[in-house]
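Deviations from the work plan: none for this task. Representative record:
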Amino acid sequence: MSVLARSLEHEEATVASSPLPPSESRPAIQLELYEAFTQRGLSLVDVTWEQQRLHESRRWSVVELLSQVDFTQIGEADRHLVWNAGRAELTTKPGADRLERLADLECRRWQETNPTVAAIMQACGTWSRYWNEEEAHHETAFNRLSTVLRLEPVSDATFIEFRKVFPDDDMLRTLTLLAISEVVAAVDYGQCSQMVQDPGLRALFKQVAADEVQHMTYFIAFAKALVDSGAYKAKEAFAVAHLFLRDGGEVHGSKRERVESRDTHVNWWDQLEHREGFYAPDALRKKEQLIFHALKRITGITVTSREEVEDTWMDLVGC
Amino acid sequence: MPDAQELESYIRRKFAENVGLTEAELFSEDLSLSALITRSERMTNSVDLMEAFARTSNGLRKDFGLRVRLPALSLDTPVSKVLAVFMGEVTNPERKSA
């Protein structure tokens, strides 16, 4: 008998009279993480279990979804959407890798002075493994489609360039930026799902959009927990929102007259290629509304226009 | 209402304070915004730079009742251009008062 079997036998002997665990509710994102740690007494093991349950409930197969796509039904405009998506998704792995590293660094920085913030950081870093895996699905699905459809190949040089790991920043800024990045991605993919002709491709875009909404919700929850803790200031969330929403801001991506050239990392929204006569997702108003909603959730402050975002941010900054 | 020279010297001083460099460092070398971020120990990225602009603008509102809204500036913009943009805003008769 193996050591494991013996230990399980012992375990059975000691817990046989214990009640069965209560049936668990439907898996969901912990939206009130600060409260969960400080008032409901959840541990990191508890939070991680909830993350795992939700992840398992949402898993899907790239191979299966791709098998539903009728390649003969994908026109030129839809091919271009697929190609853009595949390239853009290459930048997510470095985002997740950076998040994991930064969250762990921040966790250790706070451990002595604020164990709750340390726990929030660790919960975030732990969750990044699920984010990374789901984004791997997106990247490989679209790039495999591009390959099968014989679209312009992504060179190894581009692949490596898009894998540059983002520089570190304040954690609340980082989480807000990631939440907004997911807003933009979710809206774009939602638009794509309405535009493409093939039902199989439509299902793929819908699934990826749903994933991005879930990621957005997670980032908002982690950011809110940091603000709730009092250790991070709302102005940082507003600064990032303003960066996106101001005139010529990031939300306009590669449609801007001038895109900042950086050698440190690649922002996917700056790399989308728009071709004359082809549909390109936009829906700026919808993106704005979702960003306002994210700010409300994270900071508790209501804003309803880009001008209000700027005014609120400037008020929070002070002199 | 302060004269243009007074406003310019105020903007120079406040901006230098907010980015954590001396006026001499900033303006005698006419640093680009990316060089400024690299040189300042207080700055991580362009969000910090935006905040320095905002603090300078808030100072103008508080001390002179002037409202400045800045456009997005690329990172290769020299600080002399930033100063010119600020001055254009505060001396523009069309601007909104705070």
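The interface with chain B takes residues 167-170, 173, 235-236, 239-240, 242-243, 246-249, 258, 260, 310, 313-314, 317-319 of chain A (CB under 8 Å).
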